[in-house]
Design a protein that fits this description.
heterodimer, A: mainly alpha, 14 helices, globular, B: mainly alpha, about 70% helix
Chain lengths: ~350, ~300
């Protein structure tokens, strides 16, 4: 396990270095003045610009510039947003938690529906239920997420009026920001209407999270189906059968556990996809998250925001990757011994 | 195959031919395939098939509902939009823009990706290792995010989004080709032709490529369904094709203001995207099934 941890951490470090080089090099590609693009100070006068140039070490070698870039990131000095003139760090610290909440909720929904459906499909392989579930998986995978979002709003927010269609909580509730995660903040607050606020926030998150969840859920269905089918063909299941265990016992005690372990790795890999859907869905549901902020930033030519948004979202995805890798290794001893190769 | 064998010659179908024989046996896959061919023909011949000009507005016939509605008009089968443009013509023209361009995008990125992937598979050592890790980093960033960054550099517009999508698809092709070529090179038949004196390029051309083409085609269908969704999504977000163009995502976005008065301006482009992605996915699914069937025999 130690070797595994070290190898994973060194890979993570290497990945981060490559990612930082990628985001660092973006400054040379964005149109406009580089110094303004990276600092975000659009109203700076000549003296201030000169000061900025020395701060960012623009006139020194590219290695010094890169080193200064890394130092700035670790000091939390990400510059100002060119559109709002607020520090990027503050913006991200309120926006990123909203996206994390939304994506975790979506991932949970996708797993809760996708994995059991996939298992059922595998157990009834080549029967009617299997076909129905597979058809659902293919159609669900093909629906464009923005269209689905609009239909869901029309159906559940406007015609049935079950759920609100925009934002993450009703403006009636005043929740002081502590952690940035709305649900945690609500529970921490001493508002007398805490539980109403909690229910309200929950009803806001249901629709966007379900819309995001559909496509990953269909992927989980197929992965769960194939991993369950693989497990059902292994010799230990055959052995359990010959021991005379009933079918239900085999499924519950032997098959599900082993099939689930195989799934964990794929969950991490699906996460990047999920973030893509979350970015589009945030726009449709006016969710105050980082995806919507990034897309608006393009319209406003806010290059500071774009550069840092890419960095933050990618780091988030890599962290999720490494966490799922560790969970997988903890649960599955076979994975620890295997030599990593790319 | 009832065929008289006059000579004692055994005929082996190439991997691609075998794939087609297996592919034909699944009905659903064939339905998807016909749908795919239909869209492809529509994309090529859209200027001939369109009943009206897709850009031409007719101010007398604003927001005409589809023909099955009481207020509809049969000469405008799917109704008109807020500027009186014929929806059917716009959707057909959109087939060229969304589906046809996604096809071209995939072909370009396939060509570049396969070339780079097979070259990288032939190199060894630290260069190859760094290259692989770099690819892994790029592959873990969501494609839409990457496309957005590239659009931010190049500026919004249909042409720029196409390049952005090409650049996000290339790493996937490199990755799949790299792994497939590496896998084939460790097999015995490659060793046999190497012992015959063939150099790496020759092995690649005559031994390896015919055997990995099914993997690449499979990846191409995945890439195309992603490309259709990305083109439409970027159009919808206002970063891709701009308003007068009848790209499906852009059409959907411009119908948004009148969603309640004229729901067909939103339903129809959405259905068109769904149909295009569905047929592509069905073809891909059929291919994967055919490959599996062949491996099981």
């Amino acid at each position: 396990m130690l070797m595994f941890t070290l190898r994973r951490l060194s890979l993570f470090f290497f990945t981060m270095v490559l990612l930082s080089i990628l985001t660092f090099s973006l400054r040379y590609f964005f149109p406009g003045d580089m110094l303004i693009n990276i600092s975000g100070q659009i109203n700076a006068n000549a003296a201030e610009l000169k000061q900025l140039a020395t701060d960012y070490k623009i006139h020194e070698s590219i290695f010094n510039q890169y080193w200064q870039y890394l130092t700035n990131i670790f000091q939390g000095n990400l510059g100002l947003s060119m559109a709002s003139q607020l520090p990027i760090k503050n913006e991200i610290s309120t926006l990123l938690p909203a996206t994390i909440e939304l994506s975790i909720m979506a991932l949970t929904i996708a797993m809760l529906f996708g994995i059991p459906l996939g298992f059922i499909a595998a157990i009834y392989h080549r029967k009617k239920i299997d076909n129905v579930i597979l058809t659902f998986a293919i159609v669900g995978h093909s629906i464009p997420v923005f269209w689905l979002g609009l239909l869901v709003i029309l159906m559940f927010s406007i015609q049935l009026a079950w759920f609100p269609s925009a934002g993450n909580i009703s403006l009636l509730f005043e929740i002081p920001q502590q952690t940035g995660f709305l649900f945690i903040d609500i529970l921490l607050s001493d508002n007398p209407y805490k539980w109403q606020a909690f229910i309200n926030a929950l009803s806001h998150i249901v629709l966007p999270a379900s819309v995001i969840a559909l496509a990953p859920a269909t992927v989980f269905i197929r992965l769960a189906r194939s991993s369950m089918m693989e497990v059902l063909e292994t010799s230990y299941i055959q052995a359990a059968k010959t021991k005379g265990l009933s079918f239900i016992q085999i499924i519950y005690h032997h098959a599900i556990r082993n099939a689930l372990i195989k799934m964990i790795r794929h969950i991490g890999l699906q996460f990047a996809n999920l973030i893509t859907f979350a970015m589009i869905t945030e726009v449709i549901f006016s969710w105050p998250g980082i995806g919507r902020w990034l897309i608006i930033s393009i319209g406003q030519r806010d290059y500071t925001a774009i550069q840092n948004g890419l960095l933050v979202l990618s780091v988030f995805i890599f962290v999720v990757h490494i966490i799922t890798d560790f969970i997988y290794a903890l649960l599955n001893p076979l994975a620890r011994g295997r030599r990593y190769d790319a | 195959m009832a065929r008289d064998k006059i000579y004692n010659e055994e005929e082996f179908p190439s991997p691609l031919q075998q794939l087609w024989v297996n592919f034909k046996q699944t009905n659903v896959a064939m339905v998807g395939f016909y749908g795919y061919i239909f869209l492809l023909l529509l994309a090529i011949f859209s200027p001939i098939v369109m009943p009206y000009n897709a850009m031409e507005s007719n101010l007398d016939l604003l927001l005409l509902p589809p023909a099955w509605d009481k207020l509809g008009n049969v000469s405008y089968l799917l109704g008109t939009d807020s500027l009186g443009r014929d929806m059917l013509s716009r959707l057909i023209h959109g087939a060229t823009l969304t589906f046809g361009l996604s096809f071209i995008v995939v072909v370009i990125s396939l060509a570049i990706g396969v070339l780079l992937g097979s070259l990288s598979a032939l190199t060894h050592g630290i260069k190859s290792s760094i290259f692989n890790h770099f690819l892994d980093v790029i592959l873990s960033i969501p494609t839409l995010l990457l496309a957005i960054i590239i659009v931010a550099i190049l500026g919004p517009g249909l042409g720029n989004t196409l390049w952005a999508i090409v650049m996000t698809l290339i790493p996937q092709f490199i990755h799949i080709t790299h792994n497939a070529v590496k896998e084939e090179f460790s097999k015995d038949y490659v060793l046999a032709s190497r012992l015959d004196g063939a150099n790496s390029l020759r092995i690649l051309q005559y031994s390896v490529f015919p055997n990995i083409i099914e993997k690449i085609v499979n990846q191409a269908t995945l890439a195309q369904s992603a490309a259709i969704l990305d083109i439409a999504a970027l159009g919808f977000l206002g970063l891709g094709a701009q308003s007068p163009l009848s790209e499906w995502g852009t059409m959907l976005f411009s119908g948004l203001d009148l969603f309640y008065i004229a729901p067909w301006t939103v339903y129809l482009p959405g259905l068109a995207i769904l149909f295009a992605v569905l047929t592509t996915n069905l073809v891909g699914e059929g291919l994967r099934h055919a490959v599996k069937m062949r491996k099981e025999i």
